[in-house]
Structure formats: structure tokens, C-alpha cells
Design brief:
The protein is of the alpha+beta class and about 400 residues long. It is about 25% helix and about 25% strand. The protein is built from 10 helices and 18 strands. The strands form 4 sheets. Strands 6, 7, 8, 10, 14, 15, 17 and 18 form an 8-stranded mixed beta sheet that branches. Strand 17, helix 10 and strand 18 form a beta-alpha-beta unit. It is globular.
Length: about 400
């Protein structure tokens, strides 16, 4: 489908979703966003659902302003994936050992490493900027300064919620490694700090929703937020790169005889801000639950822990600010999922996947998410499918 245009206040709301299927609270949030004086465009992805301030699955383009809540509290959250030289025939019938090895290599939940992991040990990525990155910790908000040691030990860890590490098969039988995580606790604390600062600024006092408080250009508050935002986005990128290095290491050890090799990694943020130009305007484009899908850009769109995921290539649709969905998107809240489903339902819906099947992850049950095939069908003018993946191992926090 192409988009449906819904009237907004300052700008129209372009929706790659059927408005009739979007919850009323999310539609109201979109209309609220359209009232912001600085807004120049609003694109809505097919995985749209209610969020804090701004919906998840929205792309907001503003001139001279940025809204921290429209980024989300997990700054820089995103995906990484890599195709390996392994095939389905290389995998054992019982994948529980492989899952256990991954869980041993990558701390999950609130866990952290006993000591910081240096990327040099993993050959995870060029380390030229690593020391500079950490040296800039001294320039970020005083409120998070006591968290430096924790941030260092959480680098290369998964977290909880919808974050995951997976081993997948594509339709040709090739084994892929895939993971989803962001800037961990340090990103959340930076986001919470700056949202609080923004809400206290005079120009935000008459907004329809205080969670839409913005920073405006050429102010010290904007400068401070941009500094911390881009640092946290870098943290998230490094976090995924180190996790992928740890994951590759675990797979190499588990499949020594196969001498596993890996293709170049695909990686993308889906909670972030980028400086982009549209209609001869320099804009700050916020993607909250959306990936960049410029012409030729590779991206990753996951489903749920029992369905599958897609590797995609962007088609460069300017009307969507060169964006696409970040996943299937929730169709019910976590609390609603816990009320509706049981551990037995989870076991049934994740049949064939080596994963947790206990009550602690019932809120991540596939039934709590929109059908990924439907979401993909709604954005055929935004991305093309490169590979379809189905997980065989899923590690959750």
C-alpha cells in the first residue's frame, strides 16, 4: 500500500497503516505531535502503537527543534545481523547447548560483565575511536557521572523487554546471527534527565502534552542534549558491535570443525535522531521505532520471538523521510499480554524455537505483536525484501 493522509494541525499525517486499525490513544498522540510549532512533517509506520509522548513507529521531522520523548528512552536502540557460512545441516537437533553458550557469553536482563570488554579482544570493529568515545564521558550530564563504571560493564550486554539474541535460518538454509539492543541503563538515564529538563523550559508550558517538550536551536539546553544524545547513540552502536563479537566467538567455539566465517554485518538504529535535508530544509529527523530506508540502505525488521524477521533494502521514499518500520509492533500492552496469555500459550506459539517459555517472558509472546507479514505488506513502497529469516534459537533477558 502507499500512505493514507490524515489531517493534522501544522502538517498532514502520512500513515503507512490503516487508521481504522490504530488504537485511538495512538491516533491522539499523532495529532498532538502535529500541533508542534516546529514540525515540518510526520510519517507513520505500519507498526505504529501507543508510546510515551510520541507513538512508537513514527518519524518526526522538525526544523530547529528536537523532542527527547520522540526518540524514546532507549537512545540508539537498534538491530545487527550477519550471515554466517553455517547451514541448517551444521546445526544439532538439540539447540539447548548453543543457547546456553550464548547466555554465558552475553549477560542478559540487568546483568553486566565482571569487567569491561575491550573490542580489541574480539576484533569486533576498528578501535581507533574507542578511547576518544570514552574520554567524552566527562562531557555528558552531571546527573549520570556516577554511572561510568556501570556503563562500562554493561557495554556488550543485552538488557530485557523486547531485546533478544537469535540464531536464524533464511529460506536458503543459511544460518544468520541477529541481535536487538540499545544504550542500556546509561541511555535511559540520559533520556530521563533531558526530558525532565525540557519539561521545565518556558516555551514548553502550553503544549497539548507535556511529554512532547522540545529543545530549540541555539540554546545551551539543546547543545547539551545533542551532545549526550549522539554519545548515547554511539554507545548503542558499540554495545551491539561488542555483543556481536561475543556471539561470533561463542559460535566459532561451538562449531570449531566448520571453521565459521561471517559476511559483513548489517546494523541500524531505530530510536534516534539524524540531521537530514528535505525540500531544501535542514531538518532534525527523529525515528522512534523506525529505521532509515534510504535508497540502497540495508535494514532489519524483526517480527516476534516465534515468527520471523526480514533483511530489507530501502527504496528511498522521501514522503516517508526515507524510513520504514522497526518491527512488527505491539498490538497490546505488556500488562494486557500477561492478563491474556499463559506460559502454556507461549510454549505453543514458540514451538520449534529454543527459547525461554516461562511466565517471565509471556509479555513477549508472538500473540502480543502484529503479524509481521501484514506489516511488511503495508510498506512495499518503502523497502524491498532481501532475505526472510526464521529463528531457531532466541535468547531473552
Amino acid at each position: 500500500m502507499s500512505y493514507v493522509e490524515v489531517p493534522g494541525d501544522q502538517v498532514p499525517i502520512r500513515m503507512w497503516a490503516d487508521p481504522a486499525t490504530v488504537e485511538s490513544a495512538a491516533l491522539q498522540q499523532l495529532k498532538n505531535v502535529s500541533t508542534l510549532p516546529w514540525i515540518k512533517g510526520l510519517a507513520v509506520m505500519p507498526d505504529v502503537h501507543f508510546g510515551k509522548g510520541a507513538t512508537v513507529g513514527s518519524v518526526i521531522a522538525m526544523q530547529g527543534a528536537v523532542c527527547p520523548a520522540a526518540v524514546g528512552v532507549d537512545i540508539g536502540c537498534g538491530m545487527s545481523a550477519v550471515r554466517t557460512s553455517l547451514t541448517a545441516n551444521d546445526l544439532p537437533g538439540d539447540l539447548s547447548r548453543l543457547r546456553s553458550k550464548i547466555e554465558q557469553a552475553i549477560p542478559v536482563g540487568r546483568g553486566m560483565h565482571d569487567s569491561p570488554v575491550h573490542p580489541e579482544r574480539l576484533h569486533a570493529f576498528p578501535t581507533a575511536g574507542w578511547e576518544d568515545f570514552w574520554s567524552r564521558f566527562g562531557s555528558i550530564a552531571e546527573a549520570v557521572k556516577p554511572r561510568e563504571e556501570r556503563a562500562a560493564k554493561q557495554m556488550g550486554t543485552l538488557g530485557s523487554g523486547n531485546h533478544f539474541v537469535e540464531v536464524c535460518l533464511d529460506t536458503e538454509g543459511a544460518v544468520w546471527l541477529m541481535l536487538h539492543s540499545g544504550s542500556r541503563n546509561i541511555g535511559k538515564e540520559l533520556a530521563d534527565h533531558h526530558i525532565g529538563v525540557a519539561q521545565g523550559l518556558p516555551h514548553n508550558q502550553n503544549l497539548v502534552d507535556r511529554d512532547l517538550a522540545v529543545f530549540v536551536a541555539d540554546t545551551p539546553q539543546m547543545a547539551a542534549y545533542r551532545n549526550d544524545l549522539f554519545w548515547a547513540q554511539e554507545y548503542a552502536k558499540y554495545n551491539r558491535a561488542i555483543m556481536m563479537g561475543l556471539l561470533k566467538e561463542a559460535v566459532r567455539k561451538e562449531f570449531k570443525k566448520a571453521k565459521v566465517t561471517f559476511e559483513p554485518e548489517i546494523s541500524c538504529h531505530h530510536n534516534y535522531v539524524a540531521e537530514e535535508r528535505y525540500d531544501d530544509m535542514d531538518l532534525l529527523v527523529t525515528r522512534k521505532g523506525a529505521i532509515r530506508a534510504g535508497s540502497g540502505d540495508y535494514g532489519i525488521i524483526p517480527g516476534s520471538m516465534g515468527t520471523g524477521s526480514y533483511i530489507v533494502r530501502g527504496l528511498g521514499n522521501d514522503l516517508a523521510f526515507n524510513s520504514a518500520s522497526h518491527g512488527a509492533g505491539r498490538r497490546m500492552s505488556r500488562n494486557a499480554a500477561k492478563r491474556r496469555f499463559t506460559a502454556k500459550d507461549l510454549e505453543e506459539q514458540t514451538r520449534g524455537v529454543e527459547c525461554r517459555k516461562d511466565s517471565g517472558v509471556v509479555d513477549e509472546i508472538p500473540g502480543a505483536y502484529k503479524p509481521i507479514e501484514q506489516v511488511m505488506a503495508q510498506q512495499g513502497d518503502l523497502v524491498e525484501v532481501v532475505a526472510k529469516l526464521k529463528q531457531v534459537v532466541c535468547v531473552k533477558g
